[in-house]
Structures are given as structure tokens and as C-alpha cells.
Amino acid sequence: MTKKQLEESTEYLKSKGFDSPEIGIVLGTGLGKLVDAITDPIVAHYNNIPFFPLATVEFHSGKLIYGKIEGKKVVVMQGRFHLYEGYDFLDVTYPIRVMHQLGIHRLFISNAAGAINLDFKKGDMMLLEDHINLQGGSPLAFKNVSEFGDRFVDMSEPYDVEMRQKLINIAAREGISLQKGVYVSVVGPQLETKAEYRMLRMMGADAVGMSTIPEVIVANHLRLPIVAVSVLTDECDPDNLQPVNIQEIIEVAGKTEPKMVKLFSELIKEI
Description:
The chain has a 5-stranded mixed barrel. It has helices at residues 3-16, 89-102, 161-174, 194-203, 213-221, 246-270, and strands spanning 23-27, 39-45, 63-69, 72-78, 106-115, 125-133, 178-185, 207-209, 226-235. It has a single domain (3-270), classed as Rossmann fold. The protein starts with a helix and ends with a helix. The chain is of the alpha/beta class. It is built from 6 helices and 9 strands, in the order H-E-E-E-E-H-E-E-H-E-H-E-H-E-H. Helix 4 (194-203) links the parallel strand 7 (178-185) and strand 8 (207-209).
């Protein structure tokens, strides 16, 4: 990755009308409906953006969408990139750097995850308070990283405290159940064994997924305040583990999605 590549990607999007967005939003598996709230949308397909990776997962559409939500300019990633698709950490996080170049001041992230904390249920949402990176690498581990920011990035509070509190208040006001916890990210794409779920619970994880943490690390590198919410699509109880049904996971995400859209829309209104 070079600064010139980033500049080319950014200039292409500016030429399409992507004008100084304030907020970047990354939509996870089954969570594409937020784009329906965007007014005056401008769409750029990933395969047309210079140096952008291509989305390969069939239920991830590959579009960057610019417009307004609650009167604020946003740029939304509909379809994200994962290590399990064969991308590397620089590919996965490249869009975050492009959105930052476009001018975003804040980043919202959503994902679908499995509930490891047995007090959490399928269909719940979880606000990320902290995370554990089990993906075996870092998006900052490349030779010329210092051209883009500090090599050594503090991660003592990776998720913005002020936006987290606002989301907690919004959830309480709107009568939306919002759990809080620690997210662990693994490579995938296989799901976990019973022994692995037990290990993750012992490590202190409340939910497990295959995304988000690389983007969060890069956002911290760029000093972008982040808030992230998981939609819990299955219950990972090793003593009562059922075979996974990906279609059911997508359906659960879809049913819970209106609540997540409400949370993010209200947060956009308040910041």
C-alpha cells in the first residue's frame, strides 16, 4: 500500500460526488438495510474503485454508498472484506483508510457474531467495550507503516467512551436491549469446536466473530473514534451445541437489524 494508491482511490470517489463525509459506517453480514435510510445516495461499486479489493462472499454486496442520514453526510460500506476470503490485513482495512482520506471524523462498525456469554441470547445486540485479537496478525505490521501514522498504537481504550454511553442511553430510551461485552475475532471461515468455545469463554470473550478488529486497529492508528455493535445470531453453548445453519444466522441478523438501524440513526442525530 502506498499513499499514491490511497490518493487515487480517494480522487475517484470525490469525482463521483463523495464530498467530505462526516461518518463512516461498516455493515456486517445480514445488516445491509441501513442503506435504505440514506437520502440522495451516490453508489460506487468496489470493482470500479482503483486499488479496492472485491467482495467475494455471496451475501456481501460490494458497494460504497455516500449520502445523508439524519442530515449528516455518511459513507457506508455495504460489504466488507475478511481474512477467510484470502485477503490480507492491508486489503481488509484499505477501505477504512480511504474513508478517512475522504474526511470522516467517526467510524461505526456492525457485525454478526456468536454469543459465548450464556446470559446473552440469539437476536440480542452487544456493544463492544473491548476485544481480543486471535487473527494471528496486525494491519499495522508492514514496512512503511510509519508513513501513515505511529508504528506503536495505544489500544487501552479502542472503542470511544462517549459514543458508547450515547448508545447505551439511546437503547434505554428506545426500549432496545443492548448487552455490553468483549468481542473476540478469529480467522474462520470454519466455526468453533466445543473445546474452542470453552477456551474463548475462559479467555473472557462474550461474543466471537471473524471481522471488525483489523478495522478497529487501523481506526485507532488514524485516531478515528469508533463505536461497534454485534448482532448475536447464534448461541455458542458447548454443552448444547447444534450444527450451524448459515441461512438461519442471516435471518436472525435480518430480524434484529431494524433495532441496529435505529441505534445508529439516533446516534448520528446526536453527534
